[in-house]
Write the structure tokens for this entry.
Amino acid sequence: MHYTRLGRTALKVSRLCLGTMNFGPHTTETDSFSIMDRALDLGINFFDTANVYGWQKGEGITEQILGRFFDQGGRREKVGLATMVYGNMGDWPNESRLSALHIRAACEASLRRLRTDHIDLYQMHHVDRDAPWDEIWQAMEVLVQQGKVLYVGSSNFAGWHLAQANEAAKSRHFLGLVSEQSLYNLIDRTVELEVIPACKAYGLGFIPWSPLKGGVLSGLAKENSGRRTGELQQKTLAKHKDKLERFDAFCKVRGEEPSDVALAWTLANAAVTAPIVGPRTMDHLLGAVRGLDIKLDASALAALDEIFPGPGGTAPEAYAW
């Protein structure tokens, strides 16, 4: 396993992040434990979850599974654990989003479910345009001072949100955001305009979610398997059928699986810390590791750009002069 620092911090994380969204809804607890143990065996020390995963309001099903996993000695100490706050955890007005009240309550609840005394990376699952940054940072500062949170990250932020957040943190002499988790894959490249440049400018680790576009980039031979049978995936497959056929041919010439090449493509971007792989099965996990060994040279990257054109570079040059 290869490791890198998380943004401008000294924290070392594996180049693959284990996503746990399937644990509970699609993967049994027993199988989830086996996958997590195997991930540790492979050297993956970066686990990502969220309080809403499990999709039963207020229950935190996936966090509970991780908590029972960590209850068996020696595992928690090996893991850089990331979870999230923002989602709807109840029916009352302050049981979602980023008020100081909800941040505090959500953190305490996640700690109980995860059976741990601290969260290594506490991520805001979405921007809350109604929450002042002074309120958010005051709440996060208290959690850091209490030792319940070590680092703070974001997810699904625009570039200007990252700048706004970190400038506000700087004025408070607080470390601020150290990472951003965004949708990024060969098909979805909008973040190249401003989010990735903002991450570079502020020293944020960049953590792509859905690097395989919900399985769409796993190869047309798997068109009717797993998540790809969903309505959204089927629409995406139909929309990008020509590109996906060219992508399959590109991978076949190189003797590689499309999913592995798609993952290798994200890893080839120097801004990327660790793409999130969200296995439903052990085979999914073991397959993802192959992406670490594939090296795409300049000509291969150029060929992929021809198949899946990005936005044309960074803003404003991508759309202006």
User: Anything to note?
Assistant: The mean pLDDT is 96.
